[in-house]
Design a protein that fits this description.
Bound molecules: zinc ion
Radius of gyration: 46 Å
Shape: elongated
Structural class: mainly alpha
Number of domains: 2
Helix content: over 70%
Number of helices: 6
Distance between the termini: 117 Å
């Protein structure tokens, strides 16, 4: 791609007429060609002044060009040597995960048993309380009824007391 093509593409870029692929092409050229990059930056500044906010800020532009190159480099690396985890690491992780899982299962059953024990104890206590209450009410019923007697000799006093309370 030569510089005159890039010039056209730049204008198309600002008119949002570039495809993602073409955009990538343009940015790759901008990363390699200082003249075009400066042109682009100047154009971008003009565009930015015209429609503030719509175009990219100059600082962000540098970052974006840099990111495009980095993404391309990363792709090149992953394509050339597909890195895989060593087999022993995979087995290692497998063992650790299995142990963690077993530990969690064990903890769960332990907790469940404790809850069951607690529930049993609670039920026994409730039965005991119920039994005690029955014994208490049986005792109360067996008690002889208390007879209340007046120890007032003069019945007039009692009448006065009743009248006063009315
Ligand atoms: Zn150029």
């Amino acid at each position: 791609m030569n510089c005159s093509n890039t010039d056209t593409m730049m204008h198309e870029y600002f008119d949002n007429e570039l495809s993602k692929e073409e955009e990538s092409f343009l940015f790759t050229h901008l990363a390699q060609c200082e003249d075009c990059k400066n042109n682009f930056k100047a154009l971008n500044r003009v565009q930015y002044e015209f429609r503030k906010g719509e175009s990219e800020l100059p600082e962000r532009l540098e970052q974006r060009i840099f990111n495009t190159i980095r993404t391309k480099e990363r792709h090149a690396v992953t394509n050339s040597s597909k890195k895989r985890l060593p087999t022993y690491l995979i087995y290692g992780y497998g063992v650790i995960i299995t142990m963690l899982f077993l530990f969690m299962v064990y903890q769960f059953y332990d907790l469940k048993n404790e809850t069951l024990n607690y529930k049993e104890n609670f039920e026994v206590t409730m039965v005991q309380i119920d039994l005690q209450q029955k014994q208490i009410s049986a005792l109360i019923n067996e008690m002889p009824a208390v007879k209340v007697k007046t120890s007032v000799d003069n019945p007039d006093l009692l009448t006065i007391g009743i009248l006063e309370s009315l």
